[in-house]
Amino acid sequence: MAPYRENIIGNSYSTNNNNVVLVHKPRISIESLQRMRFDISFELSKEALDRDHDHHPDESIKELPPINEVEDAKCECCGMCEECTTEYISRIRDKFSGKMICGLCTEAVKEEMEKNGGKREEALNDHVSACVRFNRFGRTHPVLYQAEAMREILKKSSTIRAKSISPRDNKAVPKKGGIARSSSCIPAITKDFSDLKVLNSRNYIYACTNN
C-alpha cells in the first residue's frame, strides 16, 4: 500500500504486513535552529579571516586602541579626590592657571566670574582663599565660622542700606514720578465750619428778637 502524499513534514512511515505505521521524529526548536545558524556563520567568518591572514598577514594584524588610564586627582581648593583621566586633568590645569579643581569648585568659580564681570583669575583666587579659610577654621570651629559668615552678611546688608538712604544720594538724584501737593485742604474745611457757625448764630439771634 503506497503512502499518502499528505504526510506531515517531520514524520516517516514504515510498512509492516501492508500496514502503514507513522513514526514521529522529534522536532527541532527555534532556539536550536538559531544556535546552529550562529555557529555556521561564526565558522564561515573564521575561515574567511584565516584566508585573509594567509594572503595578507601584515594587514590583518591591527593594533588595539589605547585605553585611557584613570588616576585619583585631588582638588587644590576643597581637597576632594575624584577619578579623572590624564587628558581631563591637563585640560583643567590649562584652563585654571595650572590648578586642578573639581567639578563643584569649577561651578563656584563660574559664579564668581559672573559677579566680578568675567575675571577668571580673580574669581579663582577668591574661591581658593574661601576654601583655605574654611579648611583651617570652619572644620575645627564650625559655630564660630558660621557666626563670622553671618557677620559678613550683616555688614554687606548694612552697607547697601546705608547707600540707599544716604542724604547725598537723595540730593544728587531727584525724585521722579511723585505727585506734588500745592496746599492743604484742611484750612478750607475749617473756614467753611466757621462760616456755618456764624450763620447759625445770626439766625438764632434773629429768631429771638422776633419773638
Q: What would you say this structure looks like, in words?
A:
There is one protein chain. Helix 4 packs across helix 5. Among the domains are: 47 residues; 96 residues, no CATH class. By secondary structure, it is mainly alpha-helical. 60% of the residues lie in helices and 9% in strands. The relative contact order is 0.04. Strands 1-2 form a two-stranded antiparallel sheet. The chain has a two-stranded antiparallel ribbon with strand order 3-4. The chain is built from 8 helices and 4 strands. It holds the Pfam family DUF1677.
Helix content range: 55-70%
Query: Which sequence of SSEs, written as H and E, runs from N to C?
Result: EEHHEEHHHHHH
| General shape | elongated
In what range is the share of β-strand residues? 5-15%
Low-pLDDT regions: 1-10
> Helix/strand/pairing class, anyone?
mainly alpha
Largest sheet: 2 strands, antiparallel
Q: Whole-number radius of gyration?
A: 49 Å
Task: Give the strand order of the largest sheet, numbering strands 1, 2, ... along the chain.
Answer: 1-2
Can you give the mean pLDDT? 70
Please count the beta strands (DSSP E, at least 2 residues each): 4
Distance between the termini: 158 Å
Number of helices, where a helix is a run of at least 4 consecutive DSSP H or I residues: 8
